[in-house]
């Protein structure tokens, strides 16, 4: 089943969800840079891919939003306060996933480095640091912490529905 219906999400929606989830989890390894002043195997292993994966997440998020808008009339819904909370959390996650790559690029550029994705220079190295870009780019980390909180809340909500409510909310997105 490719398309969503009232009972469950289709394979395309599930594909976007799980691929983005894995990539976002991989992005969280960047927090390892805060351990031992950046000298940690997690940061060394995943850090060099952070910008490229961020750009990939941006493209997949835009594609997912376009797909979601197309599927909206037949998608499953959560009634009541749970649905309101879920909708707000999802919107905040989408906002974070959409703005963080741009804020990260501004941070890198503001620090005086070129912005490269898959090794291709998208924004050339500035002559010097760019204070306005750095100032805006510093919002990348607060959005990252917000996203971590939202992901934990999202997982907790799914488990709450599965274990406590014993409804099919979690099964809608599972294979």
Helix-strand layout with pairing:
Layout lengths: L10 H18 L12 H6 L3 H22 L8 H31 L4 E3 L2 E4 L7 H7 L2 H26 L3 H5 L2
Antiparallel strand pairs: 1-2
Helix pairs in contact: 1-3, 3-4, 4-5, 4-6
The domain tally reads 1
Sheet with most strands: 2 strands, antiparallel
The CATH architecture is Up-down Bundle
Global morphology? elongated
Helix content: 55-70%
Alpha carbon gap, first and last residue: 11 Å
Radius of gyration: 18 Å
Structural class by helix and strand composition: mainly alpha
CATH topology: Fumarate Reductase Cytochrome B subunit
Q: Ranges with pLDDT <50 over ≥5 residues?
A: none
Number of strands: 2
CATH class identity: Mainly Alpha
Walk across the major sheet and give the strand order. Answer: 1-2
Q: What's the order of the H and E elements?
A: HHHHEEHHH
- In DSSP terms (H or I, runs of 4 or more residues), the helix count works out at 7
Which strand-content bin applies to the residues? Answer: under 5%
Q: Look at the structure and give the mean pLDDT.
A: 91
Pfam family, one: Ni_hydr_CYTB
GO cellular component, one term: plasma membrane
Keywords: Cell membrane, Electron transport, Heme, Iron, Membrane, Metal-binding, Transmembrane, Transmembrane helix, Transport
Protein name: Cytochrome B561
């Amino acid at each position: 089943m490719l398309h969503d219906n009232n009972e469950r999400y289709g394979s395309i929606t599930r594909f976007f969800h799980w691929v983005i989830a894995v990539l976002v989890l991989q992005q969280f390894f960047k927090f390892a840079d805060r351990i031992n002043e950046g000298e940690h195997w997690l940061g060394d292993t995943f850090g060099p891919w952070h910008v490229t994966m961020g750009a990939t997440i941006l493209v997949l998020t835009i594609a997912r939003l376009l797909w979601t808008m197309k599927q909206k009339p037949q998608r499953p819904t959560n009634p009541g306060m749970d649905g309101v909370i879920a909708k707000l959390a999802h919107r905040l996650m989408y906002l974070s996933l959409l703005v963080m790559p741009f804020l990260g690029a501004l941070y890198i550029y503001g620090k005086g480095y070129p912005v490269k994705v898959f090794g291709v220079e998208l924004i050339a190295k500035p002559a010097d640091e760019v204070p306005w870009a750095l100032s805006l780019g510093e919002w990348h980390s607060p959005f990252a912490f917000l996203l971590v909180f939202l992901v934990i809340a999202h997982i907790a909500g799914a488990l709450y529905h599965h274990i406590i409510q014993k409804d099919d909310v979690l099964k809608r997105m599972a294979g």
